Amino acid sequence: MADEAGMLRMPGGVFRMGSDHHYAEEGPSRLVQVDPFWIDETPVTNAAFARFVAETGHVTTAEIAPRAEDYPDADPAMLKAGSAVFTMTRGPVPLNEPGRWWDYCFGASWRRPWGDATTHEDLPDHPVTHVTWDDAAAYAAWAGKRLPTEAEWEFAAWGGREGAEFAWGDELAPGGRPQANYWQGRFPFENLETDGWLRTSPVRAFPPNGYGLYDMIGNVWELTADWYASRTAPQIPCCTTVNPRGPAHSEDVLRQGPRRVMKGGSHLCAESYCRRYRPAARHPQVTDTSTSHTGFRCAKDV
Length: 302
Description:
Distance between the termini: 12 Å
Number of helices: 3
Number of strands: 12
Structural class: mainly beta
Order of helices and strands: EEEEHEEHHEEEEEE
Largest sheet: 4 strands, mixed
Helix content: under 10%
């Protein structure tokens, strides 16, 4: 049901969250109940984020030079405003070395999402990127909303379907037609662009799910309200968890800093590398880090 401007009302209910058949951090699978809630029909776009910045004067993390006292081990030459931009490699590289395809690009931000002459004004209906969790939370507060919990996000992403391999069914590309913006070809050096897009796509470029929501899968990862833990607690056999939240604080892994959960995969997820274009998939994002494939959408209580 649509009523709130640009939002759809989710009915709430019980569903099976997580998966025991893919990446370890998705398990264990468990029954979860969420109350009804509102969620944005699409990810927040460049045009919408521009209105927020024009009204509030908000400066994103990517537009502020890192401070030496916060990053004492950093090369001083790298302490300039910028963000991580994906760069296709010239050939095969080890897939456990993401530094091969991520460049910290000076000047890259939501205003220059690809780190080149392309601006947000050239891509008004594409999802905003290069935002950190704090940037997303600031936008949500301005809009009178909040970020969705991981459970709310996953419930919405299934679109009323449950138990399938993907949000749209058991086949990744029915009839050879991609149902979302993800990577086709050999990552990170060959993108066949079967879906029609090399990078991000307009937020309504692919069919909506069963709830009428667009881009819940692919295009950009979406930040959620929950702190990240690599494994969730096993379900108590007698009970269904109601409106679950993540841990009280983030795991600190290898001193990377606090991390939040992001969901849905992005245009860089590939069969050969990152099969996270599924509702149950999840990934950590360091709260002070922004990239060219991370965005968000907002939620609101009923």
